Amino acid sequence: MVSKRLKIRAKNEGTLVLDARGLSLHVDGDEAMRACIEVAQQSGRRVAVSVLTPLEVRRTGEAAKRLQFLLSRFDVKPVNDAVTDAAAKLLDASGLDGHECLVDALVVATAALCTPPVLLVTSDKSHIPALCKAAEELPGSPKVKIVNV
């Protein structure tokens, strides 16, 4: 029976990726975001953020301590060659400008490379949807579903 429990805990049911707005809401104590993350974790989803996202959500004082605590509980994904290559392809496929949309492209590329199914929490209704649609053209056609907040 013990080994059965270990298998259940090890089961991965996908990934919930937070962009800056999702992480910011959580750091600021938004109950709906807390519940969303709790449900995701209880269902076996990993919660992840791009290493760039905390830079967008910088805080000071007690909020900075809360941010660090929350980040210690999430997968902080690095920006590596695979992510930058995917981001470049997303920008090309979507026709978006790299100067204006670089961070969004890196966040969506990070999400696209996470364990599926992937949900991306965002408030962006312009660049992120276009980049998520472009992600379906990447090898393996990863689908990144948007959760609007």
Query: Which range does the strand content fall in?
Result: 5-15%
Classification by helices and strands = alpha/beta
Using only CA atoms, what is the Rg? 16 Å
Total helical elements: 8
Overall pLDDT metric:
92
Let me know the number of strands. Answer: 5
Q: What overall form do the CA principal axes indicate?
A: globular
What is the H/E string? HEHHEHHEHHEHE
pLDDT < 50 runs, ≥5 residues? 1-10
Oligomeric assembly: single chain
- What level of helicity do the residues show? 55-70%
Cα(first) to Cα(last) distance is 40 Å
In spatial order, strands of the major sheet run 3-2-1-4-5
Largest sheet: 5 strands, parallel
How is this structure best described in words?
This protein is of the alpha/beta class. It has helices at about 1-10, 20-25, 30-40, 55, 60-70, 80-95, 100-110, 125-135, and strands spanning about 15-20, 45-50, 75, 120, 145-149. The chain has a 5-stranded parallel β-sheet. Helix 8 links the parallel strand 4 and strand 5. Helix 6 crosses helix 7 (about 100-110) and helix 6 crosses helix 8. The longest helix has 15 residues, at about 100-110. The radius of gyration is 16 Å and the shape is globular.
Summarize the structure.
The chain is α/β, with parallel strands linked by helices. 56% of the residues lie in helices and 15% in strands.
